[in-house]
Structures are given as structure tokens and as C-alpha cells.
Amino acid sequence: MFAKGKSVVSKGKTVKEAVAIALDLMGETMEHVDIEILETESKGILGIGSRPAVIRVTLKEMGAVSEAEDPVSMATLEKEMASIEPAEDRLLPPLSPEKRDESDLLGKVWVADGMIFCKDAEDHYPLISPGKDIKFYKNDELIEKTVVVSEQDILHVELQDDILEPQWEIVVSDDKMEAVLKVVPGARIYRRLKEKAPHSYIQLEVEEHLIPVTIETGPVMEKLRELGIVYGIDYTQIASACTSDEPGVFVIAKGNPPKPGKNGCFLSLQDMEIKNGLKERSDGTVDYREIREFPSTQPGQVLGIVQPPVPGMPGTTVTNEPVFPPEVLPLVVHEGKGIVLVGDGTKVVATEAGHPLIKEKGTTVHISVVPKLMIAKDVDLQTGNLHFVGDVEIVGSIQDAMLVEAQGNVLVHHNVNRAKIFAGSSIIIRKNIISSEINAGKNHMLIAEIHHILGDLIQQMRSMINAIHQLSTVSAFKVSSFSQAGLGPLIKILCDGKFKSFPQLTTSLIHKIQSGTGVLEESWAEFSERLYKGFMLTHSEFRSVEEMVQLMKRAEQLFTDTQENSENADCFIKAGYTLNSQLYSSGDIVIMEQGVYNSKLYAGGFIEVDGYIRGGEIYAAKGVKISEAGAKGGMSTRITVPKGETIRLNRVMEDTMIQIGTKMHKFTTQSSNVYARLDEEGQLLIK
């Protein structure tokens, strides 16, 4: 039995025959169906070009239907058939007019308008071969190979039309801020025999005609309501998706995202950073050598204002639910030395003169005023070595074998003679550096080395902890058995096996931390002691894996702190002339007067020399610019930068070596205006 609304497409030599076939197939009568004539029959000429009638019969709703109400009764159908005019000769297979003689068709077979025709001949038999996946019947017998056919045979094929229903799905994002309609269009596939011209042998082929089937918008809208999607619907996109003839994903609804607010912050009322720029002399000229200036503050000066948090604006999901912005937090101010909070904690006021130091991290800010140590004469045996937590300014020179160590900046108005300067920040020496060691950013260098070792150690600790967890799953081994004796024996077994490099890494890190005593915070010493007692002693203090995990988490926190410290480094060295000295800067190095003679310069930033470089080694992580490099007489001069940086030399002497990455070049003749870099293939290019 056929359900209401179902239909059958039927073919017959006539419309009446097609209707009878459909009714018989459905087991229904005329008054219970609707009939639609898709194609009328055509007899053609000599059987050529004839075409069967094609109709669609659809089962109506249940209930008595009178003949007067029946839109297509048999009487009406016969009346309509009588009014149909015969088809024209346009259905004739593609033969030229002179070949439409019946004699030309003898012994041949052809396909026209989806039907098979043939003409007998006394001396020749027409042959038909069914194509792939074609059910060909001769006298109701299924044929699967080439056969002889005649006019008396009843020849037909079974072709099934298909409908590929369209597929669609509505997907809502996890945050409910977007809904997409995924569509795969459907199609109606109509199959019919391919036209074949008269021939003694033909192979049957099928043609397919695809008609796109669009998606009904009603069910889509119903699904939107079912999912509760009522906000930000784009009806244009829905229409485009439903009528698309290609698979696709369409955004059919968008929510309104929340607008985040702002956490509380510190608004500085004066320059807190080292100024970079040109300074004007009293006579109006510009001093190109004075390019940086340290900021300072006076007692009672307002350093800045603590700004309150600003709340954000909520948004809306596609299901019309509110989406609240992230919570905003007030700024927590840690009062360092030399400052005080006034006005209900909204204003930061300096209580001492010195250099303002602000370290802001997340919603916490540390503010202090670093005092400056002023030495109005030379640093010599009378003053002794200097160790200061802030900035140091020396009006005179630093004499033989003296040491100046400052966590802030160092300014020397005259010379540095066979002495050492270690500064946490920048160093300016207005005159000459003779046979001395100058280090700007010592803390940063040490922290950078600790950061590198700590990163490798954390990876090893994490792998070791995972290995212990795996061992604990073995029935013959229980980690709990070490609760009294400690994990020392187990750690030794692992270090002797898979983790052979772990003891060396641990020892190296402990030594680095010990070398930074007085520079690093006390927490580093505590961490170093726990490393030693946990991993280096035979009787380890670790009684459980959880204790190792806690130490690893502490290591990860220190690793993050050292990374931030390294990224915030802003150091430089500036001097007039250097002879037989070693200069290290985590930032730039600038030599503004005569130049550099037989010295070693290392910069984590850029190196610029206005004068000459005679001998020694130069390395700059961010490039080099030198007026004159090299010396006559064979003094070796080497200039190195990493891959991706450049070397600029206004003038270069023979025997000067330059290196970019791993690519080196030695000048054999004097050259001018040299610009060296690596090309895209990694080859050294010198202009």
C-alpha cells in the first residue's frame, strides 16, 4: 500500500496505457489519485523518433471524491488525450534527409527517445550489447551479453530515477556566539538511454540528468526555534545556504561578544624610562653624543596616579543569553623605599630624591625611588671599592684595580684605568677605558644563563617524575616503600640510566646560583638548597613524588620570573675610547670618540663605533656600524653578527675578518662603504 502523497512515474505507448500501469502498480482507482502528464506519446516516422507517454500519478488524501470533483477522471483524461496534437518529425534520430529511406535501416538497430528500434534484413542481423549496470530485457529475459535482435522482439531496459535528499545541520559554537548551517545540496537524477544512430551493432549507454533539490527554509527555521536561536539571525545567509548548489558552511547567526573592561593601572605623571634622544647645548647646538638621560625625582613630587578599574559591557549569545565580560581587578601597589601613598591610596608621592623605579606585573605594581650615590672625586684607595644598590655617579675617574658595582646605572665623568665596573643597568664613561673590564647588565647575563639551564632542568624533572609514576604501576615496585628511606636510591638508578645528564645540569645550576649571591633574591638560595638536598645527596630528603612535583612547580615559577627579567632588560655602554679592555653589555655599545684598540666587545644589542677598530673581536647580536675597521701591519680584527643581522663599514682594511652566522669573509684589499648581509639562500652578500 502506498502512503498518502506518494507518487509513481509511469511510461506507456499511450497516456491511457501509462495510467493503467500506474494504477495497477499502486492498486488504486482513478478517483483516489491525481494524474500529471509529463510527456505525451509520439509515433514518429517508421518507428523512428517515437516517444512513450510519461505521467506521474500521486495518491490523494483518503476520502470519497466524486467524479465531478476529480481533477483528472478517465473521461477527462481521454478528452485531453484527444486534444493532443501529434508530435512533429523533430524526434527523428539524427539522420540526414537522404538517409531516411527505410532501406538504409535494414539490419540495423538504434535508440531514439529512450526506446530501442531495429529493422530486420535477410543477410544481416542487428546486435545489441548491454552497457555496464544496465538491465536490458529481450522478450522479458534479462540479457547480459551481446545478442541478436529482431523486429518481433520486445526490447526494453529498466532505469531507475533517484533522489538524493539534501543534507543539512545547524551547529552552535561552544560559547554560543555563533551558529552555522552546514549544507550538502540534494539532486534528482533522471536516467534515460543515450541516443544511438542506426548501426549494425550498438552498445547501450545511460545518460543522467541532475536537477538540484533545494532545502526548504521552514524546517531550518523550526530547528532554529528548537535550539533556542533567536538573536543575531542572518536571514540572507539562510536563503543562500538553502539555495546553494555546492556544499558549504554558512554563518546564519552571530552573537554580540562582551566588551572587556580595564584592570586598575598606574598612570605615570613623569618620564620613568631612560630618555633616548638628542640633547641641546647651551649655545643652541645639538650634542650628538648625549643621546640618553637618566630620569630623577625630588622629595614631595607626585610620581603618578592609581587608576581604578573600568568594568566591561556584557554581550549576548545567539540564544539570547547574557555573556558577562571578564572580571576587572584593582591595581595592588607595593610601596617600596622612597614613596608614600596619599589620597586614599590614589596618588604615589616620592619621599626621597633619586631614580624612580616601577615594575608592573599583571595587577600588581612595585614602586620605589632608588637613591643615587654621588662621588665628587676619583674612586681610589681612599674611597675603597663601591657596592651600591642604586645608581652611582663619579665626578672623577676610577683608578687602578678599583671596583665599582651597582645594581642601577653608573656614570663616570672621566677615565677608567685598569679597573672593573659591574652595573645592573647602563654605564656611561665620558672619557677613556684603559685595560679595564666593563659589564653592563651583569645581573641580566647571570639570569639569562640561569634561565637557560633551568629550562633544561625542568624538562628532565618532568620526565623523571613521569618515569617514577610509570614504575609505580608495576606490581613488584611500590613508591610508598621509600617513605622512610627517601627516594635517593631510586633517583640514583634513574640518573645512572636514562637521566645521565641530570646531575651535571643540577650541579651547574647550583653553582650559577651561588655565584649570584648578593645579586639574586634569597628565594634562589632556598631553591638551590632544596635542589642539592633532594637530588645530590645519597639520602634524599624527598619522601614522596609529591615533594618532587612541588619543587618542579617552584622551578617553573622561577623560570617564568627569569624570562620576564631578561625581556625587560634595557642596558647599554657608552664611552669615548677603549684600549686593551673587555666590554660586555646586554644591550647596545656605543663608542663615540677615537674608537677601539685591541679590545673585545660583546653586545646583546647593537654596536656603533664612530671612530676606528684596530684589532680585537667584536660581536653584536643586532648588527654593527663602524667608521673604520682593521689596521695596517697584520693586526687581526674580527667582526661577528648572528644570521639575519648586518655589518656596515665605511672603510675596512685588508686582513679584517667579518662573519654573519656561519658565513665568513676576509678582506684582502682595502674597501669602502661595505654593507654585508646574508641573501635569501643564506649566502654572504657584500656590497
Automatic annotation (TrEMBL):
SMART domains assigned to the protein according to its UniProt record, in alphabetical order: Jag_N
Gene3D superfamilies per record: probable RNA-binding protein from clostridium symbiosum atcc 14940
Domain RNA-binding protein KhpB N-terminal: 9-60
Any Pfam family: Jag_N
Name this polypeptide is given: DUF342 domain-containing protein
Organism whose genome encodes this protein: Paenibacillus validus
